[in-house]
Amino acid sequence: MTAVSTVRKARGSRLRVGDNLVPWLLPLLILGGWQIAAMVGLFPARMLPAPTSIVAAGYRLLGTGELQQNIWVSFWRAAVGFLIGGGIGFALGLANGLSNLSARMTDTTLQMIRNIPHLALIPLVILWFGIDEAAKLFLVAFGVFFPIYLNTFHGVRGVDPQLVEMGRIYGMNPARLFWRVIFPGALPSIFVGLRFALGIMWLTLIVAETIAASSGLGYMAMQAREFMRTDVVMLSILIYALLGKLADLCAGLLERLTLSWHPAFQGG
Amino acid sequence: MQEAPPVHPMADGIANRTSGTVGGTALSLRGLQKRFGETQAMRGVDLDIPSGQFVAVVGRSGSGKSTMLRLIAGLEVPDAGTIAFDGVRGERGGDLRMMFQEPRLLPWARVLANVEVGIRDADKLRAGALAGEVLREVGLESKQNEWPAALSGGQRQRVALARALVSRPRLLLLDEPLGALDALTRLSMQVLLTQAWSRLGFTAILVTHDVTEAVALADRVLIIEDGRIVQDVAVREARPRTRGSPTLATIENSILEELLTEEI
Lengths: 268, 264
Hints:
The complex is a heterodimer.
Chain A lengths: L1 H9 L1 H29 L10 H14 L1 H33 L1 H15 L7 H8 L3 H25 L3 H9 L4 H38 L5 H10 L3 H29 L10
Helix pairs in contact in A: 3-11, 4-5, 4-7, 4-9, 4-10, 6-7, 7-9, 9-10, 9-11, 10-11
Chain B lengths: L26 E10 L2 E11 L4 E5 L6 H9 L6 E6 L2 E2 L6 E4 L11 H6 L10 H11 L15 H13 L5 E5 L7 H18 L2 E5 L3 H7 L2 E6 L2 E7 L11 H18 L1
Helix pairs in contact in B: 3-4, 4-5, 6-7
Subcellular location (chain A): Cell membrane
Protein name (chain A): ABC transporter permease
Family (chain A): Belongs to the binding-protein-dependent transport system permease family.
């Protein structure tokens, strides 16, 4: 134990840098193997282009402004759809969590709708909205709604009733009871919903953009397929992965900021 | 019990009840009844508690002692009967505070903020100062910026006591607040509680299953059985009380005997 800790202390800073690199070792290794395999000609460039040619494609599309334009369009759709669906889900989750009357009126209906796979609505959505922005926003909002709704609902319902009782007897009015006791108590569960929703948000958007769009990353990939530009197809897939990771990082950061009281987030 | 009992600095005594005293609520219960489904938890309780008295309520599990406390607190509504506070029916106001068996601290609020929960609206401007002061009284001033999760069970219950005392209540209801603590922590909590009671002069009602504790702390011990008060025992021992003194031991034994006969 002591020997190990001395060694650790001696190489403290270098070790910490090394620790941060560990998660990236595997992706780098795969990337390297892929590059070599492509250069050796293990598979045709039409099927799987080398990483370098994907980077080159990205550089070329950045030059024409096409890439930024499409990323921006996709990001905007994701964000707006998320805000609409998440906002409604959050509000309904709170309402049904706090009020039995509200829950009895709406929960059964919502549970029925929840069982419809939202991507099955694509044909209907195209009939209703064409391939307009509204179609994509509707699908994203619809997909995002349920994880946020369910987790907010259960978060509010799961708040320790003993704490609520304490708040009442200590003279908290309903507003203060909500902000001091119920909302913070429901927050961990709300964050679980947020993370699920972020995943569904990208998934929905990719599918919607590949099927019914005239702009955006998914459209860019479909166009590239028409012209057998595998490098551009791969590029859009990689950008989706990066955007997904970015959204998750933001959620994680928010979680650490607001849940610092939680034992799971202490000392880390 | 053979060795010389350590002197227990229970209270500063009635003489010290001078400045800062806010007095206690006088309580009057009449014909109180409460039923939970098939169980009749309260069968017509009549009780008068004068201002500033320390009352302990003992009884076996399910005897109705907690129900009585929750009825007084307003957490349950009686099926019949009335509760008057200082002669006024049903007006609890902000003078009532309660401690539970669990500390019930907000895990997402630091210690100081948890104590501030107990502060009345009128004192909001001085909240930080008041909370800091009462934390000093319970000996936890250095912990004011900690999360409750970082405290021991005894420390959490001390924070809960600070939260109850910070508004200088006139009626303190205690629902087995020391029940989950280890023996030593329990003794030091008893000292804190008696000191606060002596200084502030509130009326205290302590529900407990520990007869020794009831006799050591209270002016009066009520035995509740099957939803009724079956005995009302005065404890006239002066404070500070000596643990295990002959008078207290006699009272404790008679109460235990009463509780044990009921069991048969």
